[in-house]
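The following record pairs a protein chain with its ligand, S-adenosylmethionine.
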Amino acid sequence: MTMQQAGQLVCVGTGMRMAGQLTPISKSYIESFDVVIAAVPNIFTRQWLQEIAKQYVCLNDHYQDTKIDGKTRRDTYRRMADTILAEVRAGKRVCAAFYGHPGIFACISHMAIADARKEGFEAHMEPGISALDCLVADLGIDPGTRGMQSMEATQFMIYQRVIDPTAMFIVWQIGIAGDLTMKRFDTEQAHLQIITDKLANTYSLDHEVILYEAATHPLEQVRAEKIRLRDVPQAELKQFTTLVIPAEQDLKVDQQVMDQLKALERDRAIGYTSP
Ligand SMILES: C[S@@+](CC[C@H](N)C(=O)[O-])C[C@H]1O[C@@H](n2cnc3c(N)ncnc32)[C@H](O)[C@@H]1O
């Protein structure tokens, strides 16, 4: 029997919008655990966390590591996970807080939870409201209507991926598209031209796409700017812009499967069961 270690880890999400998008259970972990370790960009959310946490550690400085020769965002993420783990190993109940959902495009929480469990600590994740959740609400798009694909921009660029033009396609991190150095926090027109050309293998250049930015505080406006695919390279993109590509083609019936299903219905109607 393995003994449960004293330290504990829970990863929570603060939601996208300051105040109001945090679940009650996540709030209770933030208030009651020994230390809150956070990587949240919004300064007001940081201040609020600091006020209600018993002890507060900010991870944001770790992003500076990418300025050091030979270090990339991967090193930053590893150091953030290690900082979390050090507190767990010290026997503390640690609440690691990330903006949005702590497990969506947020490898630090996944790494920290896997490492903590490997070392015998209790560790779990509480879901949060992600950029995708806000996008569905703000743009009024139901992913269930036509299906949804979701992918990181650079991953789409550098790997051979099959995109279905009959379903919506959400492209994350378009604002750092094509960065192979893993050091940058922006992109350039040349990189955006490459992703646009690749998307043009699936969509027409006239296809209308949406540049989406969720509001992060009550006074901020949602950005839902519709542009043509051909204009993406010239678009003003932020690190937190998400590119939404609505379905361009109609759904096509898979006649073979449809026939099989109809045959089942027919068999059922006449009371036939296959041997
Ligand atoms: C590292 S991921 C973090 C996602 C976050 N964990 C979540 O749950 O939404 C960063 C990417 O999320 C998306 N994102 C972050 N903030 C956003 C916002 N305010 N509006 C729209 N998309 C956003 C962008 O695609 C951005 O490049």
